[in-house]
Automatic annotation (TrEMBL), chain A:
The lineage of its organism: Bacteria, Bacillati, Bacillota, Bacilli, Bacillales. It comes from Sporolactobacillus inulinus CASD. This is Helicase Helix-turn-helix domain-containing protein. Residues 255-343 form the Helicase Helix-turn-helix domain. It comes from the Bacteria.
Automatic annotation (TrEMBL), chain B:
One of its GO terms (biological process) is DNA recombination. It comes from Sporolactobacillus inulinus CASD. This is Recombinase RecQ. SUPFAM superfamilies: P-loop containing nucleoside triphosphate hydrolases. GO terms for cellular component: bacterial nucleoid; cytoplasm; replisome. It comes from the Bacteria. InterPro entries: DEAD/DEAH_box_helicase_dom, DNA/RNA_helicase_DEAH_CS, DNA_helicase_ATP-dep_RecQ, Helicase_ATP-bd, Helicase_C-like, P-loop_NTPase.
Length: 359, 510
């Protein structure tokens, strides 16, 4: 089953260095600096926010299942951190990689806009579907005020007649879906609601398509990311729908983006913290995020090359990406912040994390 | 022709042309004529009997805008939606959840509105009052008027200010409507809203076209068996009310497996988009059986629900009548079945406690408000933080509404004792409601007679299919209930789906 393979894959990637909660937060796309950083550190960024509807109880049940089936085994007394068993490795090895990670999933440049984009798209399609069938009354699936506001403006700026509006949305969606694998297009379109054509929930789609809900979610996210990517890359081809994405186009979180702009004006980390009434540690998180996303032009101000070398040597020696053991080893010579920066920088440059279960 | 007759005639025309109904339902004419005469009116009619029409028709015959104060956001949205479906465009809502731009657009265009739905807290904003006082208000409607009374089961402190506000708006005539209010509550409503010599139109709470069965079972297992026995031959679409989220999911799954029904579950723990999808599917007849908690149903406007099952019993007669009242609103035959077993009796008691903040929580929240570590500035924020801390929605609202009532010169902590008092009173009311409900389950005489007595009514004429105590020939009853044609909920490929969304099947893409 897909969901088992997915969880095995992530357990393997996390090398037992994070608890199960870390995997859960990754899939949910928790907006904490820890989750974002982990997604880069362990090379699983495509899965960030990939199963945003997964409930904790479902997740826990699947982990329990894997443990009972002896595909994973705990490495701590509390049973929160796991590695694969031999059976687990075998099972994962035979699972086709391209099914596990569809290509679209890897397009993560717009990841911070993904949630809002999807809300806007659903509301737009539902509204246009009703309008072009002469209906002005329907129960909208999305009810967030700013989303409605945005969609309203987009529709008002669109073609003048309902017929033309329906036609252009239809055509653009048609062209978009043509570019994707059918499985993905089917998944995304099944979730869309319209006039007398209610969308399915993920669970319903799973049942109807005989896949599990996680695979449905991954297929849908892959389609969504391809779509956003096309809108950014070739807006001329999709003149109307691509405007759903106008505004911010950055993989940085909003708050990290603000920090980046202030850094550009020459402020120091401490200046920014006091100016923004935020904790210094929060600004440090932003710098780590900038580093992960390769836009930290100030890295050398906070981490010398020598210091970085020292940290990475210890990390490799101890075969870990956990802060504490590294810090214990180096003592007062380096700060936690510096360790995080070093790990972040080297996560990006592609240094492989040694797998504990291979020892 | 007397003026009353001419009013009636006009009302009838609107009924047909705007709403597409052939005739008035009991009570509607009398209410409408009184409203058109400019009188204050207090009206009580059961859920689903058509109270909205009583202010919607006057909206087309009076000069100005009809204001409707409605306590629940979802309800408001559904009402606006229902009016839109009739082709009415000049209808808007104002509530705290709207985008500020949208709100100011509404305020700028008040004059063009025929209907404006408002949540009570909106009326506390001076900008809103000011804008409203510039237009002609033809009618001041208070929906769910029992919320005005603290003896009612759903008291809202925000409702207490309505009389003042009506005065500020030039004392337009008032129509107060509710589905349930005993005499005590009625008097309270008339007094609190300052209604002058109101016409009182009180209709029976009874819904004759719903056959009622209450079935006691030995244990949970037998209860489930009995349920599935019923579901095999029951009419659809139907709703099963359960006390917990788990049960909704479990029953939906079992009914799907065992009976091949198209089922779904619905509860407050679901993502809001999924909830809305399920609701739309149910309205579009793509679901036969919906297993839900009491989170579902408020404001749902579906005429042909044939079956209401209670797998757990609700905590008051009020809630019960409201829930079974969702069956067969089109007047055709419907069926309500309640199953219970001894162990169910502990459930509602827990709910009553959960409806209010614990003493410790009350104390702490008031203190934090004084210390400024919690703020009332943003209601949603206040509520959602509390709910994350595990406080129920009703309890969080209780805290918000009572804390908002604090006089300026006092501390929040000074509200502690009054709040405790209020909780004690309210718990007493709810415990009493629950015991009435339990007596209903235990009664050995006619169910209908029993609940009518609770509302100080007498059963005038027994319907042919009355209740389990009077005896119901089940198979004959099933014959009487209309059957629904089903439409399938299919998984389409993307081309089919796009065609369905945009009705483009006749055309090919560019
Ligand atoms: N005179 C009538 N004839 C037919 N249907 C009616 C009539 N009056 C109301 N209805 C329908 O009854 C349903 C319930 O009305 P509503 O006003 O929402 O009930 P409630 O009394 O619970 O507020 C609505 O679908 C409405 O269209
Ligand atoms: Mg109503
Ligand atoms: Zn009877």
């Amino acid at each position: 089953m897909y969901q088992d393979a997915l969880l095995l894959y992530l357990v393997q990637k996390f090398c037992g260095e994070r608890t199960c909660s870390g995997i859960y937060h990754l899939l949910k796309g928790k907006k904490s600096s820890q989750s974002v950083q982990d997604s880069y550190l362990f090379h699983v960024a495509p899965f960030f926010h990939s199963c945003s509807e997964l409930s904790r109880s479902c997740f826990d049940a699947r982990i329990e299942h894997l443990q009972r089936a002896q595909l994973i085994k705990p490495i701590d007394a509390e049973c929160t951190r796991f590695v694969l068993t031999e059976d687990g490795v075998k099972l994962l090895d035979v699972f086709p990689e391209n099914r596990l990670i569809p290509d679209g999933l890897k397009i993560i440049d717009q990841i911070n806009e993904e949630g809002r984009f999807w809300l806007k798209l659903q509301l737009l399609v539902q509204t246009v579907s009703a309008l072009c069938q002469g209906q002005s009354a329907f129960l909208p699936v999305v009810r967030q005020p700013e989303i409605s506001e945005h969609v309203r403006r987009l529709i008002l700026s669109g073609p003048p007649t309902r017929d033309q509006l329906g036609r252009i949305v239809f055509n653009e969606l048609y062209q978009l879906f043509l570019t994707m694998p059918d499985d993905e297009a089917n998944s995304l379109s099944a979730l869309l609601s319209g006039w007398k054509a209610s969308g399915l929930t993920l669970d319903q789609m799973a049942e109807a398509s005989r896949r599990d809900a996680l695979e449905c979610s991954i297929l849908f996210k892959s389609a969504l990311r391809r779509m956003m990517n096309l809108f950014v890359g070739s807006p001329d081809q999709f003149p109307f729908l691509s405007r759903l994405l106008i505004g911010r186009q950055s993989s940085l979180s909003k708050t990290a983006e603000t920090t980046r702009k202030l850094l550009q004006t020459g402020l120091t980390l401490h200046d920014i913290a006091s100016k923004r009434h935020l904790a210094v540690s929060t600004i440090e998180d932003h710098l780590v995020e900038l580093t992960l996303k390769k836009v930290n032009h100030w890295l050398s101000d906070y981490l010398s090359t020598a210091c970085e070398q020292q940290i990475m040597n210890v990390a490799d020696h101890l075969k870990t990406r956990q802060l504490k053991p590294i810090k214990n080893h180096l003592g007062e010579r380096v700060s936690y912040f510096q360790i995080r920066l070093a790990l972040a920088k080297n996560a990006v440059s592609g240094r492989k994390v040694v797998r504990i279960n291979e020892q | 022709m007397s003026s009353n007759q001419s009013f009636l005639k006009q009302a009838q025309t609107i009924l047909k042309e705007q709403f597409g109904h052939e005739q008035f339902r009991p009570g509607q004419e009398e209410i409408i004529v009184n409203v058109l005469n400019g009188r204050d009116v207090f009206a009580m009619m059961p859920t689903g009997s058509g109270k909205s029409l009583c202010y919607q028709i006057p909206g087309y015959l009076l000069q100005g805008t009809v204001l409707i104060i409605s306590p629940l956001l979802s309800l408001m949205e559904d009402q606006v939606h229902a009016l839109r479906l009739t082709g009415e465009k000049n209808v808007r809502a104002l509530n705290g959840l709207m985008h500020p731009f949208e709100r100011s657009r509404v305020l700028q265009n008040l004059r063009s509105l025929r209907f404006l739905y408002l949540s009570p807290e909106m009326l506390r904003a001076q900008t809103v009052i000011k804008a409203l006082s510039k237009i002609t208000i033809s009618l001041f409607v208070v929906d769910e008027a029992h919320c005005v009374s603290q003896w009612g089961h759903d008291f809202r402190p925000d409702y207490m200010h309505l009389a003042d506000i009506r005065e500020q708006l030039g004392q337009p005539p008032c129509l107060a409507v509710t589905a349930t209010a005993d005499e005590h509550v009625r008097d309270d409503v008339v007094r609190s809203l300052n209604l002058t010599h109101p016409a009182q139109i009180i209709m029976s709470v009874d819904r004759e076209n719903i056959a009622i069965i209450v079935q006691k079972t030995a244990n949970q297992k037998e209860k489930t068996e009995q349920l599935f026995h019923l579901l095999e031959k029951a009419p659809y679409p139907g709703i099963i009310y359960c006390a917990s989220r788990d049960w909704t999911e479990r029953l939906a799954e079992q009914a799907k497996q065992k009976l091949g029904l198209r089922t779904a579950f619905y509860h407050g723990g679901m993502d809001s988009i999924d909830r809305r999808k399920i609701q739309n599917q149910f309205l579009d007849n793509q679901i036969d059986l919906l297993c839900c908690t009491n989170a579902f149903g408020m404001g749902i406007n579906k005429q042909d629900i044939r079956l209401i099952v209670h797998f757990h019993f609700p905590s008051s007669m009020n809630a019960y009548l409201q829930e079974i009242g969702r069956a067969s609103r089109d007047g055709k035959q419907g069926l309500a079945v309640l199953f219970y077993t001894k162990s169910d009796e502990q459930l509602p008691e827990g709910f009553i406690d959960g409806n209010f903040p614990s003493d410790e929580m009350l104390h702490r929240v008031l203190l934090q408000l004084d210390q400024g570590t919690r703020s009332l500035a943003d209601k949603n924020e206040f509520m959602s933080v509390l709910m994350e801390e595990g406080v129920s929605e009703t309890a969080a609202r209780f805290l918000f509404e009572h804390a908002s009532e604090k006089p300026i010169q006092q501390t929040y902590s000074s509200l502690l004792d009054p709040c405790r008092m209020r909780i004690k009173e309210r718990v007493a009311v709810q415990v009493n409601d629950l015991s009435i409900m339990k007596n209903y389950l235990a009664t050995s005489s006619c169910r209908r007679k029993f609940y009518l007595r609770v509302y100080h009514e007498k059963l005038q004429e027994k319907p042919a299919y009355c209740c389990d105590r009077c005896g119901i020939p089940l198979s004959e009853l099933m014959q009487r209930i209309p059957k629904k044609k089903r439409t399938e909920l299919r998984l389409m490929d993307w081309k089919q789906k796009l065609a369905a969304l945009f009705q483009e099947s006749g055309r090919s893409p560019l």
